Amino acid sequence: MKNNIIQQVISKAKFLFLFFILLANTADAHKFYMSITDMQYNSKTKSLQVVIKLFVDDIESVLEKENNVRIFFGTDKEHQDADKLLQSYLNSHFIIEQSRGSLSSKFVGKEVDKDYLWVYLEFEKFKVKDESTISNSLLIRYFSEQTNKVNYQNGAQLKSFTLHKNSIAQEF
Asked: Are 102 and 133 in contact (CB under 8 A)?
């Protein structure tokens, strides 16, 4: 009887051990790295308006590694230079070029919504008929599986493409 109870306890312990190993491996296996960028031409302001959706933990991790500070987006503990650090990172890794060179972005703002960081940018003096190229290497240095989905809309025209470590730039 005593041996039977011990065998049952061992059996349950083995099951729980295997369950937690499987659970831990499943959590890692389903992690994915992606951003979504929506760009829209505003004919009234002649600007390109951009919204970038990132996983907040991914962008925090990158900024923390590059700047050796804790960021805490959207909390009471948010670093006082969080916006400046984010802008600096975006200026290096999210670039719009036209025939006259790289366009300067205007940081409009950001907001945190649960797991996501929404970033708002504007590129003034965007010439819709000019040849345009986007370079988007956001998070790729730290997450090799990172994909950056981009949607560009000008009126009824919509172009979509995916950028990744082997292809970080695209004409649009």
From this structure: no
The number of angstroms, rounded, from the C-alpha of 141 to the middle of its chain's C-alpha atoms is: 12
Kindly give, in sequence order, each residue whose CB lies less than 8 Å from that of residue 97, ignoring residues fewer than 6 positions away. 103, 132, 133, 134, 135
Residue extents of the structural domains in the chain: 1-30, 32-171
SS3 content of the chain, % helix, strand, coil (to 5): 30, 40, 30
Q: pLDDT: is 3 or 130 the higher one?
A: 130
Strands 133-136 and 94-98 come out as antiparallel
The CA-atom distances, in angstroms, between 88 and each of 23, 155, 158 are: 38, 30, 29
Asked whether 138 and 94 are in contact (CB, 8 A), the reply is: yes
Cα torsion 136, 140, 142, 146: sign: positive
Q: How far is the C-alpha of 9 from the C-alpha of 22, rounded, in Å? A: 20
Provide the CB-side half-sphere exposure for 108 (13 A, CA). 13
Predicted local confidence at residue 32, as pLDDT: 86
- Rounded CA-CA distance 77/103 in Å is 33
Q: Would you tell me how many other CB atoms lie within 10 Å of the CB of residue 65? A: 11
117: which 2 tokens? 């960081």
Q: Do residues 90 and 105 lie in contact, with contact meaning Cβ atoms separated by under 8 Å?
A: yes
- Model pTM? 0.82
Mean per-residue pLDDT, 85-89: 98
